[in-house]
Amino acid sequence: MDARRRPAKPLDGPVHPRSKQHRADVGVAGDASSLKASDALPLPLYLTNAVFFTLFFSVVYYLLSRWREKIRTSTPLHLVTPAEMAAIVAFVASFIYLVGFFGVDFVQSLILRPAGDVWTADDEDDDVVVAGADHDKILLKEDSRSSPCGQALDCAPVVQKPKLVDPVVQDAPKEKVIEAVPSAMPEEDEEIIKSVVEGKMPSYSLEAKLGDCKRAAAIRREALQRITGKSLSGLPLEGFDYESILGQCCEMPVGYVQIPVGIAGPLLLDGREYSVPMATTEGCLVASTNRGCKAIFVSGGATSVLLRDGMTRAPIVRFATAKRAADLKFFVENPANFESLAVIFNRSSRFARLQSIKCAIAGKNLYMRFSCSTGDAMGMNMVSKGVQNVLDFLQSDFPDMDVLGISGNFCADKKPAAVNWIEGRGKSVVCEAIIKGDVVRKVLKTSVEALVELNMLKNLTGSAMAGALGGFNAHASNIVAAIFIATGQDPAQNVESSHCITMMEALNDGKDLHVSVTMPSIEVGTVGGGTQLASQSACLNLLGVKGANKELAGANSRLLATVVSGAVLAAELSLMSAIAAGQLVRSHMKYNRSSKDVTKVSS
Ligand code: ADP
């Protein structure tokens, strides 16, 4: 949760009277930092301290002298007079006061905190604005020790100190200016860090030189902090397998970002139940999708159909004349030549199977859109290799062909493009459900009529008015992005994978609702890329689609695409209902009845 929105509610456990947490708990307004626990005492703080100091040393002196006297007169020590008893009680009381007041923080700081107190800079900056229902906003200092959990994982002690800055900069309210000072690193690493900082050793070469990816990441991270003067203390380093990303997922790592994973479901799809993992930081999204799953479940489930499965790549080649470009177009589109081209193409992988080549000409330039099945891989590498094979082959028959690029954007990868919307890319899926009128009312809190009308005016007409390209839906990209991140897909392919038209029609004389989502270009895989990383792999495992399908190549990735469409169906239902019910919410508000705002999910 955004720290700035975190309510200042009491945390569990004891609260030290001098802590900032305590000040927040007691609801201090105004300049909280100027208030002290001593405000609650009958005497000023210095007087209370003086009393207890005097008491402590007086009773210690008295008890010691009594002790010496008893030893001298051979009196048994356990025989205590009422005066001695009172002195012992006063000793214990004053001891507890002094340790409680001065000792605990000091002792804890020695035992628990790293040298140089890493919290100092944060303490000054973590202002939290808390607004109560009928109260003015109050400014509190959030205890900076409630930092992200990942910080605890990060063992590298990074010491921060307030930077000396221009007063103008200092006035900027949000910017947290801190300076990282060198951390204690193993001695043998210090030399390497220095070389990286001085530019003698390239940061990118650390993995190759050290043969230890974790150590390379730690050194790069430390060098980066020293070069930039910026702390990375909130970005965890520990708890990640850096070997697993080498040469495949990410170069020059310095840590990893944490994203919470929520579960929506069960999603009843094609007779099976799925718990759908969604990695997101958007509040309400998982809850909203979950509500849609419930509506689908109690209505008997959703059904999906995979319409097509083919990854595409379109190189651009140039000729001296448009006539020559057209010659090649007719050659590759001639069914008589398809078999020989497919044999060449399919050599790229035992999973790549050429399906079609569609061409577009712009003057003397030719774009050939190759489409092929790719098994359980999303398939970009596979299709690119196949295309390269074919280009090499064509070069002998068309020596005047000038290959400008393996990708000419007619593919089209990671850009909004009508070609994907119309022809499809990756998996094309349609998913539908019939939601009973009762469920629409009780679970979705709206009516069939309101949903059908809103869908027509928002998702169809509104999107047409906006000149949308594949965006005839309420928020498909929310769900696609969350599932993509959780399952290790390429998040950039969310662009075309979120193309979706949502349809809603009344059935059975307006009693029930038919809802569908048609998504022509869902690009997913269950092998390769980020899918093999531990967390992402666990999410795929949860869905039962981890890795390559042993019986039928491609079955896992196709199933994943249908789950994406099913989750989108659920989320569309829920958000559309929330918006449709907005009329109701408004009229409830009008009559002064509280109503939870369920329309927070962006649309
Ligand atoms: P992409 O083409 O999606 O970028 P990669 O080429 O990185 O994916 O990963 C696919 C790799 O996985 C290929 O080397 C392929 O031979 C291998 N592989 C193993 N099993 C399968 C499978 N069932 N489907 C697709 N590829 C598979």
UniProtKB/TrEMBL annotation:
Catalytic activity annotation: (R)-mevalonate + 2 NADP(+) + CoA = (3S)-3-hydroxy-3-methylglutaryl-CoA + 2 NADPH + 2 H(+)
Family affiliation: Belongs to the HMG-CoA reductase family.
Location (main, coarse): endoplasmic reticulum
Topology in the lipid bilayer: Multi-pass membrane protein
GO cellular component: endoplasmic reticulum membrane
EC number: 1.1.1.34
SUPFAM superfamilies: NAD-binding domain of HMG-CoA reductase, Substrate-binding domain of HMG-CoA reductase
The protein's name: 3-hydroxy-3-methylglutaryl coenzyme A reductase
Localization of this protein: Endoplasmic reticulum membrane
GO terms, molecular function: hydroxymethylglutaryl-CoA reductase (NADPH) activity
EC main group: oxidoreductase
